[in-house]
Design a protein that fits this description.
- The protein has about 350 residues and is mainly alpha-helical.
- It has two domains: about 15-210 and about 315-345, 3-Layer(aba) Sandwich (Rossmann fold), CATH 3.40.50; about 235-310, Tyrosyl-Transfer RNA Synthetase.
- It contains 13 helices and five strands.
- Strands 1-2-3 form a three-stranded parallel sheet. Strands 4-5 form a two-stranded parallel ribbon.
- Helix 7 crosses helix 8.
- Residues about 1-5 have low confidence and may be disordered.
Length: about 350
């Protein structure tokens, strides 16, 4: 592959991240963050805090967005992201992303942006109706810039974010075809070799694409009050697990081995033989109550989270968190300024060079 997708050590580059809408939860862990922790040893990793995107629906809450941003960094660090091996950075401090957003917005018809199913779902779930700012659909374009500014080969995402990535893939193709003379029959994996600025990145979906919340119905989400947070205490975790609804009335009633309680057991109880036994007894109504299973499940989740709680204590100071962000943002700007220069040159906008510095 071209070094457009590699760093100087030859490792493939990836980009993913979070919009600071609240603390991270188990859905984030199984859907994306666990995969990020695995990849930081083998890839050049950049993890974005999309704090500007948070303003699309919370422009009147700047202090809350700032607080959420710092909390998410704490969550990432306690889950095992190492700032020496991966760069966590602030979207608002990477100007190349904003410039690429404007450029990319010229490549996408408005109706194509609004057909994005993830965007439509967010409008529905958040009850926005027609009362959303222009920046809300623009953030779908901005997300393509978040990604392509780093010229990654892959993007670790949850299942619900795959449609956003497809929009990114379209932008990469259109830019390369329009400004880099890449033929429209060229395979995605060959775009850079054929002279394109941008790789056409692929989705790297976590083992659990979508974790249902404790309500047993909707995707785990802060806004739906159905989430188990990474920062929850052991007592809070068990209390939430106890709320998982199954509709089962007694230990001798046959249960659905595919319901949310059993799904959680499959994901969070590491002993596969024990999970198989629980599912068998549950399905047969073999005198095993939901309460017993919930206690075992809660203990397994707390065993997962306890080392994270301990690591979190190392990052209680806001100053320490901001230092991590500053280091990552400096590295992010090095990459994105290079990308922007390449894109501007291809589009006939490259007149002179510039340097950025942080104080």
């Amino acid at each position: 592959m071209s070094n457009a997708s590699h760093n100087t050590t030859g490792r493939d580059r990836i980009l993913t991240g979070d919009t600071p809408t609240g603390k991270l939860h188990l859905g984030h862990w199984v859907g994306s963050v666990r995969r990020r922790v695995e990849l930081q040893d083998s890839h050049e990793c950049y993890f974005i805090l999309a704090n500007m995107h948070a303003f699309t629906t919370r422009a009147d809450e700047p202090e809350a967005i700032r607080s959420d941003t710092l909390e998410i960094v704490r969550d990432l660090l306690c889950m095992g992201i190492e700032p020496e091996r991966a760069s966590i950075f602030l979207q608002s401090e990477v100007p190349a992303i904003a410039e690429l957003t404007f450029l990319f917005s010229m490549l996408l018809p408005f109706n194509r942006v609004m057909r994005n199913p993830t965007l439509k779902d967010e409008i529905k779930v958040k009850g926005l109706g027609e009362n959303y700012p222009f920046g809300f659909p623009l953030y779908a374009v901005g997300q393509t810039a978040d990604i392509l500014a780093f010229r990654p080969v892959a993007v670790p995402v949850g299942e619900d974010q795959v449609p956003h990535l497809e929009l990114t893939r379209e932008v990469a193709r259109r830019f390369n075809q329009k400004y880099c003379n890449v033929g429209d029959k060229v395979e995605d994996e060959d775009h850079v070799a054929e002279g394109g600025v941008f790789p056409v990145p692929v989705a790297d979906v976590g083992k659990v694409g979508r974790l249902v919340g404790i309500d047993g119905d909707n995707k785990m989400s802060k806004s739906l009050n159905n989430a188990i947070y990474i920062s929850d205490t052991a007592k809070q975790v068990q209390k939430k697990v106890n709320k998982i609804y199954t509709g089962r009335q007694s230990p001798t009633e046959k249960g659905d081995p595919g319901n949310v309680l059993m799904q959680y057991c499959e994901i969070f109880i590491p002993d596969g033989d024990r999970v198989a036994e629980l599912k068998r007894r549950y399905a047969e109504g073999d005198d095993i109550g939901d309460g017993h299973i919930k206690q075992e499940l809660g203990a397994a989740i707390n065993e997962l989270l306890e080392p994270m709680r301990e690591r979190r204590l190392r990052f209680e100071s806001d100053d320490d968190v901001i230092d991590v962000l500053k280091q990552g943002t400096v590295r992010a700007n090095t990459v994105t300024e290079e990308t922007l220069a390449m894109a501007k040159e291809a589009a006939g906008l490259g007149f002179f060079a510039r340097d950025l510095s942080f104080r």
